[in-house]
Amino acid sequence: MTRSERQELLDKGLLLPLMEEFYTIQGEGFHKGTAAYFVRIGGCDVGCHWCDVKESWLPELHPATETIKIAENAAKYSKTIVVTGGEPLMWNMDPLTKELKERGLQVHIETSGAYKLTGTWDWICLSPKKNKLPTDEVYAQAHELKCIIYNKDDFRFAQEQAAKVNKDCILYLQPEWSKKDKVVPEIVDFVMANPQWKVSLQTHKYLNIP
Fold first, then answer.
1. Binding site residues for S-adenosyl-L-methionine, as ranges?
2. pTM of the predicted model over 0.90
3. Mind listing the pLDDT tens digit for each residue in 60-76?
4. TM spans, by residue (predicted)?
5. All structural domains of the chain with their residue ranges
6. Residues within the annotated binding site for substrate?
7. What is the CATH superfamily name and number for domain 3-207?
8. Which of 29, 82, 91, 133 is the most buried (most CB within 10 A)?
């Protein structure tokens, strides 16, 4: 395959830069504690300085993998598939979700929402970032809003983002892991004063699992 042919397939979403895939327990948000198969797609230009998977940022570091093979493998492990990154919406997600849905799977995405919403999703976890804000479309369709708290200004940003999502969207505040000892008490106080919010913790890290 030539480089141009490979790029054409990537542009169509028929190949995706697959960083890793693994079966584990969902650690965050609404579905925490449930078994799920994670598909991590490489590529992200949002550039959060506290990102814990910076190795996902450069798509060329990860093998361009046939979308149908990703779906076939995922179907062996779980009925719930979580597509994450990186930023998966940098790529056309229509082919991947089509293959997963044809296999009767529940398909979730974790996204900053910074790119056009492609794919057919049963659950959209929107985790917006200040560097590159979400599209109007993803605000309207998000099932949960997960705002990461690193410093006090992030509470302001979270409230700003909550005003943009649909009325049924569930609101979560999650401490950035390296700052958890400092910000957890602040999050607790904020949620008690603003009970429309819930606390999300990275329980998989406490459980010492992927």
1. 50-52, 86, 127-129
2. yes
3. 999 999 999 999 999 99
4. none
5. 3-207
6. 25-27, 40, 84, 210
7. Aldolase class I (3.20.20.70)
8. 91
